[in-house]
Amino acid sequence: MKRRTLIGTIAGVAVLMVASPIVFLKNATKSIWAYEDLKKFKILYAQSKFKWPSGVVSSLNKKGLSWPLQNREGAKVLEEIKKDIKAQRAHVLNGWLVSETEIQMWAAAYEDQRID
Amino acid sequence: MSKLLDTDICIIGAGAAGISIANELNGKNINVLLIESGTAQADEKTQNLYSGESVGPSFPPDSPYLSTSRLRFFGGSTNHWSGWCFPLSDADFSRSLPGDVVPPWPIHRRDVIPYYQRASEYLEIPSFFENEINQYSKPFSFQPELVEEGVWQSPPTRFGMKYRKALDNSKNIKIIFNCNLVEIVKKKNSNRIGEVVCLQGGHQLLKIRAKCFVLACGGLENARLLMTAGRQLPLSRKYLGACFMEHPSVTGDYVLVRKESEWENFIAKCQPSERKTAGKMDFHVITLSEEILRRHSLPQLATVFLSEESMPSQDPIERLLRSEQMRKFSTLTLTEVRPQTNCRLYLKKEKDWTGLERVKLDWRLTEKDMNRLQKAMDIYSQLAAETGVYRVKRKSFTNWAPEHYPNGHHIGTTRMASESRYGVVNSDCRLFHIENFFVAGSSVFSTAGVATPTFTITALAIRLSDHIKKIYGVTA
C-alpha cells in the first residue's frame, strides 16, 4: 500500500512537473493581452481590409520567437518591432502604428485563446 | 487745439519690443518718447480698441480671438504670457517649401544670435548665456532624425512691471500714457515721416515730431495702424496685413513610452516641469531634423509631453500596446504654417472710438497646409515608433477640429523681405520707401517656425535699437 502511494505520488509530481510549465505559459500569454481586446483587434483589423495572418506561430518562429512568448524574449521582440517599422511593415490601427510582429503576436494569442 | 511735442525718437507701443528699445536707449544722448495706448493697468475702454472680427475655418463663429489673445496696457501681452523662450532655428530662417509664395527671411540666424543673448537678460533667462549656443539643439541619441530643442523658462517677465521704474527714472525717456496713434504724416516731397498725430486721453490731439519713429504695437496692431493711420504711405498693399501666421496647436493626442528606467530621462526632458524653474532651460521640445524637413518638404512641428494619463482607455489597440509595459502621456504639438497672402487683415467699415477702422482677420489653413501637417505628423509618428521607445497616436488633419487651436502668436503682417515686392519692411525693420520709420514685433517675422515668438521679438527689438543708435550717432 505504502509502495503504491509512493509511486502514485511520484507519478503525480511528474505529471505536475511536465504540465505546469504549459499551464504557466498559457496563463502568461493570457495575462499579457486580454481576450476581449484581442477580439476587438481582430474586428478592427478586418475592417481595415487587411488579410488575417495565417501560420502566425511559424512566422514568429522564423523570427526566432517561440510561441507563447517568454519574458526573456522581450528584447528580441522589440528588435523585431523596430525592424518592421523601419521597413514599413506596419499598419495604422485606431491611429497607432502597429508592426507586423505585434499583429502576428496578437493574432497568435487570439487563436490560442479562441481554441481554448 | 492740438499740442506739439518734439523729440528724437518716438516709440509707439510699450510691449516687449517697445520697452526693450526704450531700455536700450536709456541713458543715451537722445530724447525718447514712449507712447502707450493704455495705462499701467488694464482697462476695458482701451482693450476695446482690439475688438474686431475673426473669420475663416480656423475660428469658431463670434470668436473673441482678436480681443482676448493680446493685452493693451503698459507691458502689452507680456502681462499674460507663459514665459516659454524658444529661439528660431537656422532652418526657420532659411528654409523654403515648394509652393511658398514669398521668400524666407532676408537675414540669417547668425545675425540674430548675439541679440538672443542680450534678450536673455531682458527675459531673465541667464542660463541661455551659459549654454554653448549650439548645444541647445541636438539629435536624440536613439533617433538622429528627431531633435531635442531647449525651451527656457522666463519667470515670466512682465515687462511693464519689471522695467517701468528704470524708464520712469530715466533722464532722456518720457512715457506718455493714454495716447493712441491716429495718423502718420509724411513730409511733402520727401520720403520721411514728419510727425505722428495721437489722441491723448480720448480728446486731445497731440502731434509728435521726431527724427525717427518706431511702431511697436504688436503682430496685428502694427499692420492695422499702418493700414489706417498710415493709409497715405507708399506701402505694399499686397503684403501689408497679409501673410498672417499662427502656431496652430494640437492637443489631446497621446504617446506611449516604454517603462524602462533608461527612458525616464527622456520623459523628464520632454515634460515642462510643474514647478517652473525660472531662468533655466526647463524642458525640450521634440522637432524634426532639417534633413527630414528638406527631404520631404515639410513644415516643422514641436511636441512636448504633458501629464501622464492613468485612466483606462476604451481603445483596444492602445490597451494591447500598453500591456507591453508602456506609460501614456498627453502631448501638445505646435505646428508651423507658411505665409499665404490670403491669410490677412481687412479693414471693416466700423470704426473704434479713436476714429480708426476695426479689422477683420481672415485666417485659413489651406488644403496644402493640412496635407503637409498630416505628412509631418505621420513621419514623426513613424520616426518615434522606429525607436522602440515610444509610440505616437496619429491625428487626422483632414478637417480643422476643436482640439486644434491658435496660441495667440500673431506673426507676419508687416513681413521682412529683401525687396519691397515681397514684404513691408527691409532687413533693418525699416518701412520700404520711408527713411525714418521702423517696425518692431512679430509682425516683421518672414516665417513663423514653431518657436514661441517673445524671445525673437525681444532679440530683433534690441537689434533694431543698435541700428538706430548707429544711424543717429547715439552714445552713452
Tell me what the structure shows.
Chain A is mainly alpha-helical and 116 residues long. Chain A has five helices and two strands, in the order H-H-H-H-E-E-H. In chain A, strand 1 (90-93) and strand 2 (96-99) form a beta hairpin. The longest helix of chain A is centred in the first third of the chain and has 31 residues, at 2-32. Chain A is globular. Mean pLDDT of chain A is 79; it is low at 15-30. Chain B is of the alpha/beta class. Helix content of chain B is 25%, strand content 26%. Chain B has 13 helices and 21 strands. In chain B, strands 5, 6, 7, 13, 14, 15, 16, 19 and 20 form a nine-stranded antiparallel beta sheet that branches. A five-stranded parallel beta sheet of chain B has the order 8-3-2-12-21, with helices on one face. In chain B, helix 1 (16-25) runs parallel beside helix 7, helix 1 (16-25) packs parallel to helix 13 (454-471) and helix 5 (109-122) crosses helix 13 (454-471). Chain B starts with a strand and ends in a 5-residue tail after the last helix. Chain A binds chain B through residues 32-34, 36-38, 40-41, 44, 78-79, 81-82, 85-86, 88, 90, 92-99, 102, 106, and chain B through 315-321, 323-324, 381-382, 385-388, 391-396.
Distance between the termini of chain B: 37 Å
Strand line-up in the sheet with most strands of chain A: 1-2
| Structure class of chain A | mainly alpha
The structural class of chain B is alpha/beta
Tell me the distance between the termini of chain A: 39 Å
Overall mean pLDDT score of chain A? 79
Give me the Rg of chain A, rounded: 19 Å
Number of helices of chain B: 13
> What's the total count of β strands of chain A?
2
The residue ranges of chain B in which pLDDT falls below 50 over 5 or more consecutive positions are none
Mean pLDDT of chain B, nearest integer?
92
Oligomer: heterodimer
Strand residues, percent of chain B: 25-35%
Largest beta-sheet characterization of chain B: 9 strands, antiparallel
- Backbone shape of chain B: globular
The helical percent of chain A reads 55-70%
Outline type of chain A: globular
Q: Using the CA coordinates, give the radius of gyration of chain B.
A: 23 Å
